[in-house]
């Protein structure tokens, strides 16, 4: 009897020691996995750094090839441009940019606002097999793009804090298993830096050979020297480290040479082909009016300017000094028969989206 008790006691002790060991083994295996992952990242970083040094010693990041020549995808690209995007001819540099991406190059595009940067990655996204990931800083810009693409019949979605669970599930399935129709996926930079789940699905998509292109919109946000620095953009370098074989296109309307060098380094695209288009916009001009000191008169003048200059229901933006002023000016303009609404950071997502949807898709 006493023997049995001793055996049971020792059995319990052994079992508890075994449990303790299992926990330790699990912790060690987890550590091993993390170290393997870090090892792979460090190796890739070393590789990129060496390539970067070689590239800066030998070749500047400018276009040397003739990207306006003939390519095997020419007729398919022309067909998609015309029949899917409804665009009759390319603007300056668009064709060359598209050709360099289609050739698998990393590309840096500096093109004026409204110059047609989106087509430069959306057309290759449609032409290439698989999914294009687009990182863009603003929800409103993303919504605009997704709405525009949906209108063209191109399967595009966005994965942001506002995406509902069902769409999120659809997107994750498309990334992980290649199910469902998804060609272009928009995310904010926070998704890359903060969502391990998203990055793991993206990893799976890449492993299955389905990640076709990465586009970084408003790429100047990477640089602390740029006017719009976004801390989460700093982490986008991970994309080239994780997916070195996937071409990357970085696009911006404004980048000094210091900012360009900075973002090439941060995104790890030292061999990128660079395209700079003129930032001059002949259709844009400034006009300065003297402002009355009487608020009501100012609103009357704005209302008159809008109805006289834009009698055909065109859309426009009135920038105000404060959120409160935005709300007041919109109300006053409505009182003068102008269809106006306000939009600022202090509105909830649904209200913002509602206003956004009322603005016709921007035409540059
Ligand atoms: N080759 C083209 N011919 C005619 N219209 C074009 C062409 N390329 C683009 N567009 C149109 O020009 C407008 C502006 O294009 P897009 O939005 O891509 O500009 P952007 O360079 O991304 O501007 P932003 O810097 O403001 O985001 C869109 O309506 C687009 O359809």
UniProtKB/TrEMBL annotation:
Keyword Nucleus on entry: yes
Pfam families per UniProt: DEAD
InterPro entries (UniProt xref): DEAD/DEAH_box_helicase_dom, DNA_helicase_ATP-dep_RecQ, Helicase_ATP-bd, P-loop_NTPase
Top-level taxonomic group: Eukaryota
Biological process per Gene Ontology, one example term: double-strand break repair via homologous recombination
Coiled-coil stretches: 4-38
Example GO molecular function: four-way junction helicase activity
Annotated compartments: Nucleus
Swiss-Prot/TrEMBL keywords: ATP-binding, Coiled coil, DNA-binding, Helicase, Hydrolase, Isomerase, Metal-binding, Nucleotide-binding, Nucleus
SMART domains xrefs: DEXDc (SM00487)
Its EC number(s): 5.6.2.4
Catalytic activity: ATP + H2O = ADP + phosphate + H(+); Couples ATP hydrolysis with the unwinding of duplex DNA by translocating in the 3'-5' direction
Residues covered by the Helicase ATP-binding domain: 98-273
GO cellular component, one term: cytoplasm
CC cofactor: Mn(2+); Mg(2+)
Similarity-based family: Belongs to the helicase family. RecQ subfamily.
Protein name, UniProt field: DNA 3'-5' helicase
Protein source organism: Triticum turgidum subsp. durum
């Amino acid at each position: 009897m006493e023997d049995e008790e001793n055996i049971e006691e020792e059995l319990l002790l052994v079992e508890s020691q075994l449990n303790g060991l299992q926990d330790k083994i699990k912790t060690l295996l987890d550590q091993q996995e993390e170290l393997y992952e870090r090892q792979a990242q460090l190796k890739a970083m070393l590789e990129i750094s060496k390539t970067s040094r070689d590239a800066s010693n030998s070749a500047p990041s400018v276009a040397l090839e003739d990207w306006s020549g003939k390519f095997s995808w020419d007729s398919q690209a022309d067909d998609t441009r015309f029949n899917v995007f409804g665009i009759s001819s390319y603007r300056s540099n668009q064709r060359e940019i598209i050709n360099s991406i289609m050739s698998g190059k990393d590309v840096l595009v500096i093109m004026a606002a409204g110059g047609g940067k989106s087509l430069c990655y959306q057309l290759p996204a449609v032409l290439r097999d698989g999914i294009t990931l687009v990182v863009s800083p603003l929800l409103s810009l993303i919504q605009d793009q997704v709405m525009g693409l949906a209108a063209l019949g191109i399967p595009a979605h966005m994965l942001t804090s506002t995406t509902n669970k069902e769409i999120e599930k659809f997107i994750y399935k498309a990334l992980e298993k290649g199910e469902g129709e998804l060609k272009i996926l928009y995310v904010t930079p926070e998704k890359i830096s903060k969502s391990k789940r998203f990055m793991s699905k993206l990893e799976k998509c890449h492993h299955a050979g389905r990640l076709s292109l990465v586009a970084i919109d408003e790429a100047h946000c990477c640089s602390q020297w740029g006017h719009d620095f976004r801390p989460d953009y700093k982490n986008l370098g991970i994309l080239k480290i994780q997916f070195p074989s996937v071409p990357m296109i970085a696009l911006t309307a404004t980048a000094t040479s210091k900012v360009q060098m900075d973002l090439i380094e941060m995104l790890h695209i030292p061999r990128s082909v660079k395209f700079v288009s003129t930032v001059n916009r002949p259709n844009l001009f400034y006009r300065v009016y003297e402002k009355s000191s009487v608020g009501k008169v100012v609103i009357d003048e704005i209302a008159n300017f809008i109805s006289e200059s834009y009698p055909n229901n065109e859309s426009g933006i009135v920038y105000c000094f404060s959120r409160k002023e935005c709300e007041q000016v919109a109300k006053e303009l409505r009182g003068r028969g102008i269809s106006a609404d306000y939009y600022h950071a202090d509105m909830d997502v649904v209200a913002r989206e509602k206003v956004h949807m009322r603005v016709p898709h921007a035409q540059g």
